[in-house]
């Protein structure tokens, strides 16, 4: 009887252990299937700092703060004034940048120079929110190294209270009545491209004779230029230091918010249409945080928040329901199709960029 009792006690102990193991296994299975817990575990893997290199007035502080609070990652925000400045720093060996923004043609250039990391799109689920027309562009087929951020144009802004003549074309800004009253973008591709276009040539012209002629055209404009400013050209328009200018479409929109007399003009000859993209510089110390930041920015509510502060045209289709109609319906921001058709994206112009550099330097020295 004692032997049978011992056997029974042993069997009961085995049964208890087996049932406990089964319950524990079910509990573990249920926990692993909880999406919030899974996401939380992924978030816990992110740490350190994110070094962001971007245009000025292009990322609201409120958005950066939300990312920092949610992910526990400090964002260091550094700015540049042109694609060329950004390229010079990154190609020159400036280390430590995790994430930057490059325009269409600059993505192409950086790829040719092996300056970009491939992007793990598995970490960017919100890429699905981008309108398909902005994906798979010729400068980065398959978006292997870039993710669309914003797009837009270059327009003329005019203070109608201070300017009497009609302005319909870039050519109108050469009128002597604009002496010392223009603010223009500090961007060689834009200004030389406009001068190319006034010759009936492409904004991407590579013929040295065309580029040299563009230099002469821009030298003729110098008496009318009060300042070069790519960061915040709206400021001089709002405070009255400039009566007109060549500016980003979003800057014209923001200027009109402050002063209704400022109107945007879509130049009759067309303009530059651009698309800015997130890119990860080669050797980025915190690539995982960079991809998490991109995914965060592509959330509809976050993307719409950016558009509210900096109303560039937004390729995030899912965010449009949250963006003010005033922005969506402004042709200075969202260019109509017929205007886009006669406008141009910049492309990589190869060695001709050396001519652009020379011409721009000679213009700025005057």
From TrEMBL:
Primary localization class, coarse: periplasm
Name the UniProt record assigns to this protein: ABC transporter permease
* InterPro entries, alphabetized: SBP (IPR006059), Sperm_putr-bd (IPR001188)
| Signal peptide extent | 1-23
Q: Name one GO cellular component term.
A: periplasmic space
Could you tell me one molecular function GO term of this UniProt entry? polyamine binding
Where spermidine is bound, by residue?
57, 105
Q: From its record, what is one biological process in GO terms? A: polyamine transport
Cellular compartment(s): Periplasm
Alphabetized, the UniProt keywords read:
Periplasm, Signal, Transport
